[in-house]
Amino acid sequence: MNWVAWQMLTHERAKYLGLVFAIAFSTFLLENQTSIFAGILKRTASQILDVTDAEVWVMDPVTEYFEETKALRDTALHRVRGVPGVAWAVRLYKGMPVARTPGGRFAQTVVLGLDDATLVGAPRRMVMGSWARLQAPDSVVLDRAGHQLLFPGEPLQIGRRLELNDHAVTVVGISEASAPFSSFPVIHTRYSVALHFQGPERNQMAYVLARPSSESSPGALCAAIQAQTGLRARTTEEFAWDCIRYYLRNTGIPVNFGITIGIALIVGTVVAGQTFYLFTVENLRQFGTLKAIGVGNGRLVLMVLLQGGAVGLIGFAIGTGMAAAFFEATQHLVATRGIILMLPSVLLTGGCMVFVVLLASLLSLRRVLVLEPASVFRA
Hints:
Elements: H1 2-10, H2 13-43, H3 46-49, E1 56-59, H4 75-81, E2 86-95, E3 98-100, E4 106-108, E5 110-114, E6 126-129, E7 139-143, H5 144-150, E8 161-164, E9 167-175, E10 186-190, H6 191-194, E11 207-212, H7 218-229, E12 232-235, H8 236-250, H9 253-282, H10 284-292, H11 297-330, H12 343-369, H13 374-378
Parallel strand pairs: 5-10, 7-9
Antiparallel strand pairs: 1-11, 1-12, 2-5, 2-11, 3-4, 3-8, 6-9, 7-10, 8-9
Helix pairs in contact: 1-11, 2-9, 2-11, 2-12, 9-12, 11-12
């Protein structure tokens, strides 16, 4: 009977392919949009996740997310270092000066000033040069996307000159920093150098990065720092989620993507469900004939579920392949770097497609189960 069900499904190629591609395009749209949505939100925490040396971020109590910070007093670093359970703590500068090239191009940048002695907070991936070269005077490391933005069409090259707030610097390395939410060039330099890129302000330290000792944990250290200093302390994971939640609450990103994802789900459900229902109705004569020769309802239910499962599985595989090909083709572009097909999106879409196939199969089964075998011969 399984072979008969397969032959019934593929006998009319146009309808069979229509069913498969309805599921395939719904799968592609859902996986595409949910992965892009998750990838964009992940970008809001890119510079936090790039810091792999430290596990605790200390900031002013009013700071909600990475992009907007209230500077700390220099004494905050010593207060954090004095908390029991701190293995070490260093300062981190964050600013957004405008960078100008000798050719006249300019762009706002994200500048991160790392601790002079340890360079804690630097991303691990380098394209050219090395982090050790930051010890040279007025030197910076520029990310690869920033180099392409400031020097379009030119090959990657260290030794180039930039001007940051009327302060000349030399690019001594090119990093592969994660893409920021704003797509600005990301520049790393030493803390003492970064202070020259900003106007005179009383307080300039954005964060204190800390690591717990072997006797403590990141969560316990955060609680201790908050209790002893009154500053806000978050683990790397907590601070990353703070940023994501801030953008979810205060931007139109979830609404815009939610509308697209909802439309893709509705269109996929309606088109695939209706097509499969009509397919079953048009094959009622064959199902009636099977009933007339003694095939029971249980076997017919299995045949319809087999047809729905085969269509769903093939369509889902093709749609996932299309989504994977899309992200493979776009992952090397500067604008879409770091946005990939995510496993949770695949699993979520798979669950939606199972729901669509089951719903369409159940609607179709009703017509099959109430069918009288004699009606086939009366027609």
